[in-house]
Amino acid sequence: MAFSKLNRRAKIKRRIRKKISGTTLVPRLSVFRSNKQIYAQLIDDTKGVTLVAASSYKNKAAEKKNKADQAAVVGKEIASKAVKAGVESVVFDRNGYLYHGRVKSLADSAREGGLKF
């Protein structure tokens, strides 16, 4: 029996999350991708706290751009907020999505913004 898209992604997500976890010094950069928007968070899993968040939702810089360009804007924004918060290295959590397209665009622009992963 074939997995649905959500079941397949949940299975991949569990497999990824077994191996990675965010700490205070090296938080987890989690990416969520909806049909229209993209969201990114820096999460400290030891405390269960979101340190920094950014999204393309109601973002003036991301309006009127295609989805990959919106992801790049969000990547730069999360990187600048992280640097201000004193975070320079993170663990990347693609959240079950393929490292391609919008997820890759966000990751590349976050690297350009100063994050190391």
UniProtKB/TrEMBL annotation:
GO MF term set: 5S rRNA binding; structural constituent of ribosome
Keyword Protein biosynthesis (UniProt): no
Key words of the record: Ribonucleoprotein, Ribosomal protein, RNA-binding, rRNA-binding
GO process annotations (BP): translation
UniProt cross-references to Gene3D superfamilies, sorted A to Z: 3.30.420.100
Recorded GO CC terms: cytosolic large ribosomal subunit
InterPro entries: Ribosomal_L18 (IPR057268), Ribosomal_uL18_bac-type (IPR004389), Ribosomal_uL18_bac/plant/anim (IPR005484)
Function: This is one of the proteins that bind and probably mediate the attachment of the 5S RNA into the large ribosomal subunit, where it forms part of the central protuberance.
PANTHER family the record matches: 39S RIBOSOMAL PROTEIN L18, MITOCHONDRIAL (PTHR12899), LARGE RIBOSOMAL SUBUNIT PROTEIN UL18M (PTHR12899:SF3)
Oligomeric form and interacting partners: Part of the 50S ribosomal subunit; part of the 5S rRNA/L5/L18/L25 subcomplex. Contacts the 5S and 23S rRNAs.
Similarity section: Belongs to the universal ribosomal protein uL18 family.
The protein's name: Large ribosomal subunit protein uL18
Source organism of this protein record: Fluviicola taffensis (strain DSM 16823 / NCIMB 13979 / RW262)
